[in-house]
Amino acid sequence: MKFRGLIFANLFRKKLRLTLTIGSFAVALFLFAVLAVVRGAFNRGVDIAGADRLVVINRVSIMNPLPIAFQEKIQRIPGVAAVTHINWFGGNYQDEKNFFPQFVIDPENQRRVMPELVVPDDQWQTFIRDRQGTIVGAKTAERFGWKVGDRIPLKNVAYGTGENWEFNLDGIYHSDRAGGNERQFWLHWEYFQERVPQSFKGGVGWYVAKLDSPDKSGSVAQAIDDSFANSANETKTETESAFATGWVKQLGNIQVLIITIGSVVFFTLLLVTGNTMAISVRERTAELAVLKAIGFSDLSVLFFVLSESLMIAVIGGFLGLALAYVAVQPLGAALNGLVPDLILSPGILSVGIATAVLVGIVSGLLPGIGAMRLGVFNAFRRI
């Protein structure tokens, strides 16, 4: 008689109970994997932020603009290699659901400050000459089927115009960093200044300063803020990674959320699987006694119970992770660029499988030890 036959016979004894237990595993691992993917997306944005870049915003709020005249003053501070300014645009393409980040940039300094966002030289020169030109990230271009030479209309409502702005797609950029942001839409500062209402002219959303050495980030940030202290527009300067971390924190502590849900998932699965195995062992008291009577060792009985528990856990875990793998891409598309690219990494898959195996072992251990210690004489008396 083969152990495999016994294990499978006992595993499929109660098909409905088996299906519900595996389903619980699958749903729990699916939720865990999706949340881990979202957390990884936010953390990836922080990880790839430039260590040699500072972000300068208005101390009151990023919604309060800074004067364009600040650029020259920041550039003169020792340690600053280049500085560029950026504004949020906030247009809609065809439908409000078609969200993607749009920025008004300073073409003269953009590539000096953010060299990892690569645009072919010929496309960049075309953009420089074309006031109505735009450069678009490869992911956004792929999403809408855009190609160089297309005419792209955006309806702007953020600056009170409610008008359509027409742009010529002059180039497509790629990031040379793994997981880099390829969803942005860049337009000219001068074209923006021509069309916005007078009250918005000359105002900069934020500055990004590239340093000649990342070791100077603390001193240069302090020097920038000191330069505008006690002015009508005091500044708050921090590293790009700290700025990105701040945005993530506005959405809540993702790390705590993942740990909390992961803990709940782990203990819930322990209870569900442990209860299933305990019931299964009680139902098979006579059979286990017979196995022992005909010569099966205590360790063999423990092996049977642990094998069943592990198979339930591993099958459910694989199903949940497979479902998460299939769902990640449509989920990312449904979020319309609200978060960075969602990637179900090998690390997340490994943690998911390890969790399933651990739950399978722990939940089957107590019922298995009980079955192992079962006395043949007492077991027959209880039948």
Integer-rounded radius of gyration: 30 Å
- Unreliable stretches covering 5 or more consecutive residues: none
Mean pLDDT figure: 82
Query: How would you describe the shape?
Result: elongated
How much of the polypeptide forms β-strand, as a percent range? 15-25%
Specify the oligomeric state.
single chain
Characterize the largest beta sheet: strand count, sense, and whether it forms a barrel.
11 strands, mixed
What structural class is derived from the secondary structure elements?
alpha+beta
What helical percentage do the residues reach?
A: 40-55%
Secondary structure: number of strands:
13
Task: Describe the model.
The chain is of the alpha+beta class. The protein folds into two domains: 174 residues, no CATH class; 174 residues, no CATH class. Helix content is 54%, strand content 17%. Strands 1, 3, 4, 5, 6, 7, 8, 9, 10, 12 and 13 form an eleven-stranded mixed beta sheet that branches. A two-stranded antiparallel ribbon has the order 2-11. Helix 2 packs antiparallel against helix 10. The chain is elongated and about 90 Å long. The mean pLDDT is 82.
